[in-house]
Amino acid sequence: MRGQRSALSRREALILQTLINHPWLLHEHLEEVAALELGHPEAHKLRAGIIAAFANDHHHSPEPTEQADKMRTDLEAGGFSQVLQRVELAITTGAVWGVKAGAAREDVLSTWRQLVSLHRQWHSLLRELKDAELALGEQASEANMAWLRDVKGRIAEVDGTEALIEGFGESSGRFQQSV
């Protein structure tokens, strides 16, 4: 397993990109955004920049595209151009419609809830993995080995499960029902 801080994770990049493209989320989720555990130092810095830009009070336009444009302009003016590029490069899937500019509000909210839920679950599993490794190091028992295998299995299941919501993208016109 690679180090948590070696590269910006796709999930963290998706969370940050969602906030950049949909700053209106911060109206209702600012405390949640501030409390998120982020593993990469650049993610911490960009989150702080997003919150600071939002606090400037001009991201409250009724037009979502205008909000996103102003957010990006403020972040670039704040010296985040390279970090923004790295965020975009870390997103290796186009399947997460709610992250993209122009996505319907319902899809953005569904994406947001799923990303944050998976992110919290991931960090909880990382803490449990450390506990399981410690327990196995202290006492090499079959039970501790089984616990470690179980945690690793759950981590594998959580990794890469973005956008697996039933009906995902329907509000944005992305969902095609098979006949």
Question: Key terms for this structure?
Answer:
single chain, about 180 residues, mainly alpha, about 65% helix, disordered C terminus
Describe the structure.
The protein is mostly helical and 179 residues long. The chain has helices at 10-21, 25-35, 41-55, 64-77, 81-90, 105-138, 142-158. The longest helix is centred in the last third of the chain and has 34 residues, at 105-138. The radius of gyration is 18 Å and the shape is elongated. It starts with 9 loop residues before the first helix and ends in a 21-residue tail after the last helix.
Report the order of strands and helices.
Answer: HHHHHHH
Q: Work out the helix count.
A: 7
Average predicted local confidence, pLDDT: 82
Q: Strand tally, please?
A: 0
Summarize the main sheet.
none
Assign an overall shape: elongated
Radius of gyration: 18 Å
Please state the structural category. Answer: mainly alpha
Helix content range: 55-70%
Distance between the termini: 42 Å
Poorly predicted runs: 1-5, 174-179
Strand content: under 5%
